[in-house]
Amino acid sequence: MTHPPDNSSKDAPMHDRLPLEVFYAILYLSVGSTAPVRDLVTLQLVCRSWHDIIADASFLWGTINPSEGLFEMHKALEMAKDASLDLIFIEKRSKINQTDFFKLTGERINQWRSLVVESKQWESALDDLRTRKPPKLDTLHVTTSYYPIGETEEIVLFGGDPAPGLKDVRLVNVPICRASLHLSGLKSLHLEGIPSISAAEVITLITESPSLEILHLVSLDGAVLPTLTTPAQANFASNSPIKLAFLIELNIRFLDLQFQRNLLSTLAFPQLGTLRIGCELDENPALELGVTLGLNHLDPSMNSIASGAKMYKVTLSSWGSFAICIGGLDINITTSGDPSMDRFLETFTWLSGHLEHCDPEPSYLEWFTRHTSVTALTLYTDPFYGPSLVNVIQLLSRPTFQQPSGPTWLLPHVEVFHTNLIWIDGNRDIVNMIEGRQSASRESLAAGAKGALPKRFKEIWLAYSGYWDPASPPDTKFWLEVTQVAGGADMYWEGKNVILIPTEPFPVTTLHPPSRTFPKQRPSMTHHPDNSSKDAPLHARLPLEVFHAILYLCVGSPTPVRDLVTLQLVCRSWHDIIASASFLWGTINAAEGSPAVHKALQMAKDALLDVAFLQSCNKVDQTEFFKLAGEKIDQWRSLLVSSEMWESALVDLQTQKPPRLERLHVVAGLFEPLSNEEIDFFGGEPCPGLKDVCLVRIPFHPARLHLSGLKSLSLQGVLSISPSDVITLITESPELETLDLIQLRDTQLPPAKPTADQSDLTSNLPIHLSHLITLSLRHISLPFINFLLSTIAVPRLRFFEVHLARNADPQLAAVSTNRLGPILRSITANAQMCEVTLITPDYYIIHVGGLKITIWFQALPLPMEGFQKTVDWLSGHLKTPLLDLPLHLRLKNCQPEPFYLEWFTFHANVTKLTLYRDAWLSTNALEAIIPFLGHPSPSTWLLPGLEVFHTNFVETNGNPDIVDMLERRHVPSMESSEAEVDHALPKRFREIWLAYGGRDDPRPPPDMEFMSKVVRVAEGADVYWEGKKWIEN
Q1: Sign of dihedral through CA atoms 672, 673, 674, 679?
Q2: How many Cα atoms are found within 13 Å in the side-chain-facing hemisphere of 223?
């Protein structure tokens, strides 16, 4: 530990708080062997410091795997320098020819630390090792599919020299001369499928490696016990123990039984943790299993490695084999006939029946029912053999086990069920079985069934049995039936927890009604948690009211019923809690369809209702919807309507007043109504409970609506309202928090000399709105803006938006700011960045802090003098030079000349640039800006402070101009240096955000070659595609 941390502060980055060696170890363990270069390059993208640290750590690059490709392999060899190398060649995954791979790596054989080869041409892979010995080699794994047919000469490695450095050897089906290796001091040895190896050689290898930790001996047909003559063999024959004090894993499968018995009786392994025994027997193993396998004297070891096991696994196969797995003990027996049930012990308390590739007799299931407690059942069939296990499912569906007292259920303790007996259209037998066991009741006993009722399923795992695409979902009807009868059990499809909701009657919509907020009037904390243990489920650890609030906020307003039904699938407890919480079902949305509306109205009972009808995405006829919802009008808490036929939607409200109505949002479609006839709400009665009103293109008479005490008011395109009406509404709602006035075009200012009925209005000025946070004035006349701003006092304002419609001169100087000056300075005081958006040549937006000003004027082309006036005016009133702040410049669908970018280069500090175009516009003039950013002008680089770049100027095959621009700004060309341009070089990009800008739908994936070039020239900058960080493979 020679590199202490540079900084121990908890706020310092990780690499500064850890000793460098510890940080190296973390990085090393984070890199996988399958794609090490990709993983390292990904880690380098974290930041510049990580990039440099990883580049300097040559040992991190030592894994050479051809499955990554030739480019990655060259990079790894280059970056590894003199570090030890771990070579992995898996023929079926390699992207490089075997000869080329070993030619490249053979040049650095002295650096080899490990070699892993899986190949049919394994001989050529070992050509370098026949005559040369890597001095650092400690791991050698060589595997091929089959042992060579006929007499095969054994290969001698390392020119016959010893290899004392080898610690891990794995040889599978390869004729390598073991004697020439002089193996000793091994820690791991795996020999499999090598008929030429003898029992004596095996014993010699084990004897000379007392530090062995892992020993695997599999299918060594030549390892039999001949006449023993050598001292080592004599030692073995006399059963002198071979002490393997470090052995933790022993795997002996399909060896000669006599050799196996003698080997197990000879070895002493006090620390053994895993023992796997596999053999093939002609006789019945139940009669003499312990004697046959030589296990009788291993009771202490077996008890130790099986201790702590909470579940036992039994596998039955139609090939006449069975396996028992208990903790670290795994015994696999192959017999000449069907497996016998008698050898399973009745004392097994936790047992999982795994019926694989077999057609078991009912007696097997009856045996397990009588003698064991089966809690998990797997029924698996290979598609080659057909649905041979279907009859088992039928036997589990009802009481069929004949006892003297009558029929009872098979395997009543099963709680976890796995099967792949699913076809394209599902499997009706599975639905019937689950339904029968989940709904079993005392009536079944009354009908003659005896014994314990079956437990309810906790988990149900289903999968296809055929060769259909496993990524495709199951049959919708089948899955819904299974989900319904499962009664809250966790459902899994192809190994993944899946909640499948049909498109009908629960569609997903993108148009959201106002965001949900938990009801303000809710009960006090009367339900304390039943269990505060950290192992208890969530609903048992929280007060019920808190859990209700969490559920409420998890339910979206577009599809509330679908979301609630989804949450009910978590478990039975959640199902019952949600069903009993009527207020959760109070959102009635026509977008979900008639069945969902009916269900919500039924489950809501007497709870308050939030009614939403959006014509663009409704699935219920408008008349039918409001007929259903209108029957509970006394429970309405909010009404949201967006429809061209809004009048019929408001029929009930014109004559009735919902006593609990708090929110009223009505939008008259996309266009102005043909009739300007004003409508009355609530029969002309006041509605003091209303707190949130939004009316868009709705002709109403505000005096007859009697609005007062509002907290949010939004009026858009209401032709009948006047400034006097607005002032009246504001005056009678002193607790307003949000005020949004849009397109109030037919407005007339109050006369200079007010009439008698207006005297009270003007005498009460200013109007104090001490709670107002958001004020938005858009597309209304400048005189009305001045009148309103001079009328109100807003000490707590946090966001102010003003949109000045077409004027030859912005006339900002004419805007009354006597009262707003201090407020504007307050809402912009903490601004860290100013944003300027150029949308069209005559339309720009300035956004700083909580202030947003939009100006739309007629002069063409864009007069920078007018923009300068706007900035100067704002800077003067805000007492802050706006252009000194970091600037985000957004160019959207405009056609600016390079002159405009030069203006921002000299007058502002642009650190972020967004270039955006609408895919359906015919002009692409904005794209011409990109090449200008990649070349210095005679006077300077354009926007030299630029660090963040956003654009959607990417087509299906990428955009070479972007790559060229990024490369030139990161590495200024020699031409610029030779020209002796007197200017600052551009900053390096920190972030690059790219997106597709074409018309294709769905949007195509990015061009991989283009993205690779971007990552390369970005040189450590974070690259994003469609809003997500790009990780180069």
Answers
A1: negative
A2: 28
CA–CA–CA angle 274, 254, 163 (5° rounding): 70
* Encoded tokens for 127: 């050509």
C-alpha angle 687-688-692 in degrees, rounded to nearest 5: 90
Amino acid at 152: T
In whole angstroms, give the CA distance from residue 549 to residue 358: 50
In this prediction, residues 818-832 reach a mean pLDDT of 77
162 phi and psi angles, rounded to 5 deg: -65, 155
The gap from C-alpha 154 to its chain's centroid, in whole angstroms, comes to: 52
| Residue in this structure with the two tokens 């002309």, named with its chain if needed | 684
Q: Give the up-direction half-sphere exposure of residue 327: CA atoms within 13 A in the CB hemisphere.
A: 16
The answer to whether 9 and 17 have CB atoms below 8 angstroms apart is: yes
Tokens standing for 65? 């795997």
Cross-strand pairs, 277 = 252, 331
Q: For residue 1032, count other CB atoms closer than 10 A to its CB.
A: 16
Around Cβ 491, how many Cβ atoms within 10 Å?
21
Cis preceding-peptide flag for 175 (omega within 30 of 0): no
User: Cβ distance 358 to 320 under 8 Å?
Assistant: no
Res. 357 pLDDT band, cuts 50 70 90:
very low
- Going by C-alpha positions, the residue among 422, 418, 554 that lies closest to residue 481 is 422
CA-to-CA distance for 326 and 555, rounded, in angstroms? 44
CA distance 15 to 821: 47
- Number of H helices and E strands in the chain, helices first, is 37, 42
Strand-pairing partners, residue 856, are 843
Predicted TM-score (pTM) of this structure: 0.49
In tens, the pLDDT along 195-220 reads 888 888 888 889 888 999 999 999 88
Residues 591/556, Cβ–Cβ less than 8 Å: no
Contact present, 186 and 139 (Cβ < 8 Å): no
Phi and psi torsions of 212, nearest 5°: -55, 135
Closest listed residue to residue 153, CA positions, set 121, 175, 180: 175
DSSP state of 694: E
Give 566-609 pLDDT, tens digit per residue.
888 888 888 889 999 999 999 999 888 888 899 999 999 999 99
Separation in Å, CA 1 to CA 14, 21, 588, 598: 17, 7, 65, 70
- The maximal CA–CA distance of the chain, rounded, in angstroms, is 130
- Identify whether the C-beta of residue 603 lies closer than 8 Å to the C-beta of residue 579: yes
Q: What is the rounded distance in angstroms from the CA atom of residue 610 to the CA atom of residue 597?
A: 12
Q: Is the pLDDT of residue 449 over 80?
A: no
3-state DSSP call for residue 614?
A: strand
Q: What is the C-alpha separation between 674 and 695, in angstroms, rounded?
A: 16
| Percent helix / strand / coil, the chain, rounded to 5 | 35, 20, 45
Phi, psi of 351 (to 5 degrees): -140, 135
Residue 53 structure tokens: 């640290």
Q: Tokens for 894? A: 């405009």
Contacts of 168 (CB under 8 A, 6+ apart): 114, 138, 139, 140, 141, 186, 187, 188
In whole angstroms, give the CA distance from residue 595 to residue 513: 20
User: How many Cα neighbours within 13 Å face the side chain of 332?
Assistant: 14
Summarised one tens digit per residue, pLDDT across range 21-32 is 888 888 888 887
CB within 8 A of 535, min separation 6: which ones?
A: none
